[in-house]
Structure formats: C-alpha cells, structure tokens
Specification:
The protein is mainly alpha-helical. It has a domain of 209 residues. The protein has a 3-stranded mixed beta sheet. A hairpin with a 2-residue loop joins strand 2 and strand 3. Helix 10 runs parallel beside helix 11 and helix 15 runs antiparallel to helix 17. It is globular and about 65 Å long. It starts with a strand and ends with a helix.
Length: 488
Amino acid sequence: MPETVDSLSPLFAWLVSLALVPVLLVLRKRPNLRDGASLVAGVVKLALVISLVPLVTAGKVVVVTLAEVLPGLPIQFRVDGLGLLFALVASGLWIVTTLYAMGYMRGLDEHSQTRFYSFFAVSLSATLGVAFAGNLLTLYLFYELLSLSTWPLVTHHGDAEGRSGGRTYLAYLLGSSIGLALPALIFCYMRSGGNMDFTTTGFLAGKVSVVEGTVVLLMFTYGFAKAGLMPLHSWLPAAMVAPTPVSALLHAVAVVKVGVFCVIRVFTGVFGIEFLRGIPGAQIVAALAGITIVVSSLIALSQDNLKRRLAFSTIGQLSYIIMGVALLSDNGTVGSIMHIATHAFGKITLFFCAGAIYVATGKKYVSQMGGLGRRMPWTMGAFLVASLSIIGLPPGGGAWSKWYLLLGTLDAGAWWLAAALVASTLLNIGYLLPVAVSAFFGKAAEGDDGVGGEAPLACVIPLCLTALMTLVWFVFPGLLKTLASLMT
C-alpha cells in the first residue's frame, strides 16, 4: 500500500475557482479586471496542483477529508497518479481556455460574459473534485455538480437551438447518472458494508457474483454518460450549440474527460483489474468501445460542419480511453491514461482553431476552408499539428498514447480491437488532414474576397500554445508515462 500524507493543497486547489466567483460578480462592470482575475486564479490553481507532483511521483498518496456524510463514508480527496494527471491537464488548460475566451467572447461581443466566466469557474472546481475524489460517493457528487454547472454554458445563447441542446444535454447526463449510476452506487454501498474508498484491488472485488459484477460494471459505464459511449452519445453533438470556448471545455478538459475518468476509476478502484479478469464485463465494454470507435469515425467523415466533425471525433477518441482500460493489460491502462492528456491538448487546439476561424471569417463548414491557410497561417498550422496528434502520428504526443493502446490490444490478444484502432486511425486521417490540406493548397470558396487575417491575438496565442504542447508531449512524455504507470 502506498504511503498516505496529509496536505491541504488539494483542498485549496479545489477552492480557488469557487472563491473566484464572488470576485467576478463584484468586477462585472470592469471586464479587464474581471478577466484578469480569472487568469490569476488559473495560475494559482495550477501552481497548487503542481506542488503535489513531487509527493505523488514519489509513490505517496495525498489525503484530505472534507466532511463525513455517514459513519465511515466521508467526502474525501485522495490524490494519486491518475487524479494528479487529470488535475494537471484540467487546471493547465483552464488558463489557456480563459485567455482564448477573452478573445472569442469580446471578438463576437457576446452577452452575459460575467455569468459565463462564473459558471466556467464552478465547472473547473467540480472537475478537480472528480479528479481528487477518494471514494465513489465523492466522485458521484462532483460528477453531478459538473452536469449542473455546465448546463448554463451549453445554453448560453438563450435561443431555441440553445435551449433544445441544453435539454438534450441534461436529459442524457442526469437521466443516465440518476437512472443507472446512482442505483449502482447504492448497490456498492450495501455490498461493501459502507466503505467505498477506492483501492488498488477494488473495494468490491470478491464481494459480488459474476452476473452482479457484469451488470454493475455496465450500469456505471453507461451511467457516467459523459464518456460518450454509443448509444448514449447524442448529447455531445447537441452541445455544439454552445460558444466555442464551451465546446473546447466540454470536449477536451472537463465534461468528456470526467466521463472516461469515472469509468477508469470504476475499473481500477471499484472492481480492480484482477477481479475483472474473471468476469465478462470488461470484454463487453471493450467490444462496445471498439464499435463506437469505428462508427463515430465514419460519421465524422461525413460531417461538413467543422465543430460537429470534431464532436464525433471526440466520441471515438473517448472510446480509445475506455477500450484501453477495458483491455485489462498494463500497456492498455497506461495508453488509456496518457490519452486523457494527449487528446485533451490536441482536441482543444482543434476547437480553438474552429472558433478562431469563425471569429475572423464567420466560416464554420469544412467546405468553406479552401485557401484559408494563406490568410490564417498560424491557426491552420496549429490545426495541422493538433490533427497529427489526434491521428497518432509523430511529432504529436498522441503517437505515444496510441502506441501503448495498440500494445495493449496485442497483449490482450484482441486482434479485432487492434484492427479497429488501425481502421479508426486511417479514418482520422480522412476527416482531419483534408481540412488542413484544403486550407493551405485549395482554392478559396466562390465569393470569398480573401480579405482579413488571423483572429484576435487572445484567440491565436492559446491555440499556438496548446499546439506546441502536443509537440512537447511527444518529445518529453516522461511525466505522463510516470503518472500513468503508477496505476498499473
């Protein structure tokens, strides 16, 4: 068992974005100070999370208890390798997303910007609550808080399309979590004797039958529908009605990554990998993920709306993560956890680019991208770099996570899943690279006068930084590999 240490850093990191909300409300009529406060809070949050790296990489687990709900069942933070990796990604990308939002929201003169930044902050607090959750109850509570705090972001525009997308968003996420994950949680509480702390062997291991274990595993996998596993995936394209900074938040940082993170926690902390090798549940989940990977990639190939194409891409990429942990192999788990980070930086870059294109030109369809690279070289260059990472080609960091995922399929003898991974990679090439090729070498759309250039610097700088980070993760993957390996 790893050594546990007490520290208030997880608590303070979680509180930073909550404490920001009243500051934003006070500064609502002073936008420069309001947005600056968001950036400062992001830096403080990231610094607090980074302070945990030496402890966790030394094999220690940081624990802090917030409150005891029932005897032996507290709301508790417990920071290990998986949680720290996710917290680093979320807190780091909060900073660049805030900077990007400043350029995007001001560039389009969006309404209710203070409300936007306030719920944005609450959602990041909920995300860190999930990342640091030490038991199943804490995980579930912050999962639900994230659904509620991101709903106003999805419906930000307030029009009929936004309200419809918001209803779909809540119907899927709350319906699945209350209808599936909550009954599964209650079952775990009763069967475990009230102790639902995540352990390396799984607190439910050996306490359920093969049928019970399989059913509960599937209930959790679909109950945490933020993971986007088909057929509970339709909320994700529906959420594209939100402003692009929200789309970036949903698809790269907070919502979808919380979904797959929760699934990984169920596999590793509720059941344990060794126990799952004795029941068919993991094989069923891996098969569902494999199907989702291929089908979503095919659908993405047919989408002309750039954000919808990226949305269906996200569905497939999330299933890479689920498939990786469901393989029940060390390489598969390492690849799954690393892909949380590599996909986050790649996909947020692509969404940043889509938003920058819309701010600068008003274009949102792939068929309109011809010649755009000559007007927006930095944006489309970043799009190309991020696309290589999502595809899994050097010099993108996604090459490493996909390599370990492929090794995981071979370790498990799952040849058809290896084939699905390769097929999806080819489809990734088909729906991402033509966008950049058309932008740099294609003809401009008819009627396009070619006037204009890049979006505001506040949009361009973040997308260049996140694209650069996809290259950094390829050259220096050590930290991601170390944190991921702590879970094997």
